[in-house]
Structures are given as structure tokens and as C-alpha cells.
Amino acid sequence: MRLLNYNYQRLGNHWTGRSLRKIVREEAPNVCFLIETRLDMERFDKLYGELPFSNKIIVKKPYLRGGLLALIWKNEVQLELINYTANHILVKVTEEDDYEWWPTCFYGWPDVTQRSKSWELLDHIKSFVGESWMCIGDFNAILHSTEKLSKRLPQLNQMEAFCEALKGCQLEDLGFKGYPFTWNNKRPEEANTKLRLDRVVATVEWKNKFQLSSVTHLPPPASDHLPLILQTNQFRKNSMQRRIGFKFEEAWLLWEECEEVVKNSWEVVVNGGHGLEGIKDRIWVCGENLRMWGLSKTKHNAKEIKSLQKKLEVLNSEVVTEESRAEFLEVNKNLDDLLMKQEIYWA
């Protein structure tokens, strides 16, 4: 399973839609856990109806217009809903070898005065699961002082309570790859605070079954939180690559040079250029030339997007000032524009 954990906080719906679609294309998750969506079923379908997920659970919080949590997954995952609240979704997954395990999508109480409710809920969920239990989400708490970067010291009693809660449930942190802090309040200078609030924890039984699992912190979108990817099996990228046949992209017609590429390619004479074989050869040359020319039109945006994402990572890791905050917003605006163009291309 490849599970995406994504907290929408501070993301506008239009930006969220593009950002999520881009992550789904690049990271290819087959399950997504979404937090702070604030979308009801109708609005969720309008934004994400084209995503390749046939199944969904939308959890609505009382007195809110839309949903708060959402879980979407593909048919290839055998998943069964066990129970849910406004702060969690518990499911059971059955693997191809009939192995059963219990993923929990968790959202801890943001208010410190209600933090104990998070640990009570975690303990309650424990009574519904088997030995192989995994929990992913935004716990709104840290385990160690190194998970906070701020002028204000962390509260030891809060860290101890979280540690005891995980210990009581026999859950262990899975670690991560990437930038160490998953949340940034985006305030300038001394008011800035960075925390590792989002994580994945699991029992020893789960870790023994999925020994090749990994957790990766993805580059930051405009949200306060970094998306997380949990990979439960070894991901062999090279084995998934295959040669893709030529396809004419409709977007190429937006450039005037397209007609010139076709004309020049058709004038090339290969192997004498006579009869059906000559036509076949011209078609092949035309396709190859269009492919190479087309790459220069589509790869350009991809490189710019990666460059802007890298810039966001750097800005996210630096001390926030009024200047850097303005630059962060400007980079986000440019990235949003490129993502919109890329979305048109993929459509």
C-alpha cells in the first residue's frame, strides 16, 4: 500500500485541487487520508471527482458546513470500514495473502486543553484492532524537544503524555525521510514555530510484517503542513518503467511550430520513400520528431515546478521575515500558475 496523508490547513480549494492532483500523479498513492477538507460530499466530488479513487469516506464534524476528514482509496485495496469519529477513521485491510491489519487515520485535538481526549481516543481504538496496527495522521503533539524549533520551550508534560499514550498502545514511531518539521506557523522571525506534528506509528507486529516500509515528508505546498507518504512495500521504480508508445498530444496544437514540425518531417525521404512503406516511414519520422519537440514544451514546466518547489523548501526551512513571507507567497502564486497549465496538459 502507498498511503498519502495530507492536511489542507490554509489551502484554498482551487489550490488544494491542483496540489492534490499533482501529488497523486507523481506519488501514485492507492489510499489517501485528507484532513481539514471542510468539504461535504457534493463539493468533494466536484473538486476530486476525476481522481482515480473509486471509494471514499467523508466524515462530517457537527456544526461545520463540510466534512473534516476524508479517506479515499482504489479498488485494488481490500479495505473495510470499522468505525469513525470526527477525529479518526479506523479500517481493516486484507492483503493478497489474507494477512489482516488495521490502519487508523488520526487527527488529534488542536486545543492543548483538550489534548487528553486524543490519548483517550487512541486507547479506545486499541480495543477494536488486532496485533498488527498502524496509525497515521496529525497528532498535534510532539514526542521530543528536537521536534520543535521555536523561541518558546516545549511543554514537557505534553510530551510525556503523548509518549505514555503511545507506550500504552504499544505503538512505535516509524521515523521519516525528508525535512524534519511537518508544520510551520509561517509567522516572521521570533514568532515563528516549526513542529513535527504529523507522523506514522505502528506496533512491532506491523513493523515485522512490513519491514521495508518507509515514511517520507514531501515538499511543502501552501498548507501549514507537509504531506506524508507511507510506503508499506519496497518501491522498485525501475521495474515499473516501460516503453510508452507514441501518442499525439492535443496541447501541442497550442503552438504554431507544431505544423512546421509535421511539414518538415513529412518531407524527409527514408529508404526511397515509395509506396506504403514510404508513408509508414514518414509517419514514424513525424512521430519521433513530434515526440522530441513536444518534450521541450512539456518538460519545461516540469523543471520550473520542481525549481519552485525546491525554493519553497528552502524558504520553509529559513527564519520567517516579512520579506521571506512575501517571497513565499509570490513563489506559491507562480507555482499555482504552472500547476494550472500542467493540469490543462494532463487533461
CATH topology of the largest domain: Deoxyribonuclease I, Chain A
Oligomer: single chain
What percent strand?
A: 15-25%
Describe the sheet with the most strands. 6 strands, mixed
Distance between the termini: 26 Å
> Class by helix and strand content?
alpha+beta
Helical content, roughly?
Answer: 25-40%
Number of domains: 2
Sheet with most strands: strand arrangement: 3-4-2-1-15-14
Q: Can you tell me about this structure?
A:
The structure is a single chain. By secondary structure, the protein is an alpha+beta fold. It folds into two domains: 2-239, Endonuclease/exonuclease/phosphatase (Deoxyribonuclease I, Chain A, 4-Layer Sandwich); 244-346, no CATH class. Helix content is 39%, strand content 21%. The strands form three sheets. It has a six-stranded mixed sheet with strand order 3-4-2-1-15-14, with no helix packed on it. A six-stranded mixed sheet has the order 5-6-7-8-13-10. The chain has a three-stranded antiparallel sheet with strand order 9-12-11, with no helix packed on it. Helix 3 (115-126) links the parallel strand 7 (100-107) and strand 8 (133-138). Helix 3 packs parallel to helix 4 and helix 7 (257-266) runs antiparallel to helix 8 (275-317). Mean pLDDT is 83; it is low at 234-243.
